[in-house]
Amino acid sequence: MVTGIDPRPGADQGLKPYRMSVKQFERLIEAGAFPDRVRVELLGGVLFRKMTKNDPHDFAVGLVGAILNRLLEPAWFAREEKSVVLGKFWRPEPAVGTGTGGGFPGRQVLRD
Question: Which pTM was predicted?
């Protein structure tokens, strides 16, 4: 039997990280828990700091979004740098995704 070694700090002492739900994460955002200019996303219940944007990144995201909007069917649209809820512990912010309105503003679903 092969066992893996958990690389997280404290794992060797039996400590387990606390997984945060999307609801908890959104409450922290609403309460202003994150300082201005600190960009984080929730991946698998764990907060991750997002990269700093730069001109080449912004240009590429805008270009891909514009191309997708021309290619997609009318009910679909490109979503540039918008978070999306993908389950209880997932609220990533992909550079570009596609979605439909679905009647729920802010809760669009990424296209497969």
Answer: 0.68
